[in-house]
Amino acid sequence: MRCHRCRGPANVEIRRSQTAYCASCYPEWFRAQVQERINHERMFRRDQRVLVAVSGGKDSLGLWHVLTRLGYQADGLYIRLGIADYSRRSQEKSEAFSAKYGLTLHQVDLERDHGFVVPDLLDTRSGKPCAACGTVKRYHFNKVAADLGYEVVATGHNLDDEAATLFGNVMHWNIDYLGRQGPVLESTHPRLVRKVKPLYRLSERETAAYAIIERIDYIVEECPMASGAKSLAYKGVLNALEEEQPGAKYRFLVGYLKEGRSTIRTGGFDQAADLRECVRCGQPTTGEVCAYCRMAARGRKKATSKDAKYGRRRAVAGTSPGLSADRR
Amino acid sequence: MRVTILPDRQVKEVHARTVGDLLKALGLLRDAHLVVRGDDILTSDVRLAEGDELEVWPVISGGS
């Protein structure tokens, strides 16, 4: 296989477009794809400050690397979720990346600052904390961005993530979620920061190839709590289809965003009109107490009972979000 | 050839003519893995030699 640009030996094959690139040309192609999406979707400008949601994985570190190379003002936020050794190693990867490139990395430590960890949030039916973990991350990414004046939060969601989410929402006919799925989630409240997904048309394999070629040291293993998660099952189904029909994931997602989304009626849910401030934390919510505060209270209760059972004492357990930042 | 499968670094001896054949022999999907020799990612048509030392990187992540 030959590189589409320089005709030298290729390294990365893009089966959906029947092209391939060598290791020299590939990063430029990848960054151009991201830039094109940022421009086309009007995600953000170079004079705006962007907060990148960083997990230590290939997608978030790859995105941070791309945005920095493209000249955007991008800082990172890492949330220490308390998933044993996995969190420690992903934190190390995130810190090492910010140190290598001299970037600012903000951090929130759930256990230290909020008195619980993600394993305290197991769902009683599925036995998984993944949905609750998503709520935790969305809450803190938004809150830190709003508190520190960032105009946009960028996440590393890729084509596989978005296609799997779409597949799950179709499987369960989650009409409200279907109506809201897209690469840009506009702000509907002064304290709700705009969310964007610059990698949404690039596959997981393509982001991994970018990270490997750019020598980004990322955490390769899967989160131990995600084993058996529904999204991984959906990704497996979609990748099996992709094996037979290259481009199936791309056509499914992009076709939906272009043709299907506008036909979805979300039942008249008006987020802007229904929002008020949580009585505990002040963040926007539709109820009196936001989903995060309710969940955090459950998590703290679980953590306290575990501590009593095992005779442990925690240093701090409060409700005000702690935040630290390193300029490397 | 000797194949190391990440992240557990499980080592397997596999006989395969090309990278595509290798993934098939291991029962792995092309869109969910990258095959690396030294510092180079390999496309599926690359011919392999018996003495090759290869790594297979999984690319799938996520929960919820």
Q: Biggest sheet of chain A, in brief?
A: 7 strands, mixed
What CATH architecture label of chain B applies? Roll
The main pleated sheet of chain B reads as:
5 strands, mixed
CATH superfamily of chain B: Beta-grasp domain
Low-confidence stretches of chain B: none
The assigned structural class of chain A equals: alpha/beta
Straight-line distance between termini of chain B: 37 Å
Count every beta strand of chain B, where a strand is a DSSP E run of 2 or more residues.
Answer: 5
Q: What share of the residues of chain A lie within helices? A: 40-55%
Shape of chain A: globular
CATH fold category name of chain B: Ubiquitin-like (UB roll)
Total of helices of chain B: 1
Strand order of the largest sheet of chain B: 2-1-5-3-4
Strand content of chain B: 25-35%
Strand content of chain A: 5-15%
Alpha-carbon distance between the two ends of chain A: 41 Å
Order of helices and strands of chain A: EEHEHEHEHHEHHEEHHHHEEHE
- The gyration radius over C-alpha positions of chain A equals 20 Å
Provide a descriptive summary of the structure in words.
- The complex is a heterodimer of chains A (328) and B (64).
- Helices cover 46% and strands 13% of the residues of chain A.
- Chain A has 328 residues and is α/β, with parallel strands linked by helices.
- In chain A, helix 6 (159-171) crosses helix 9 (230-244) and helix 6 (159-171) packs across helix 10.
- The radius of gyration of chain A is 20 Å and the shape is globular.
- Chain B has a single domain (2-58), classed as Beta-grasp domain (Ubiquitin-like (UB roll)), CATH 3.10.20.30.
- Chain B contains one helix and five strands; from the N terminus they run ββαβββ.
- Chain B has a five-stranded mixed β-sheet, with no helix packed on it.
- Chain B starts with a strand and ends in a 6-residue tail after the last strand.
- The A-B interface holds A 1, 10-13, 15, 20, 23, 57-59, 128, 130-131, 133-134, 160-161, 164, 203-205, 207-209, 212-213, 220-223, 225-226, 229-232, 235-236, 239-240, 242-243, 249 and B 6-8, 29-34, 36, 40-46, 57-64.
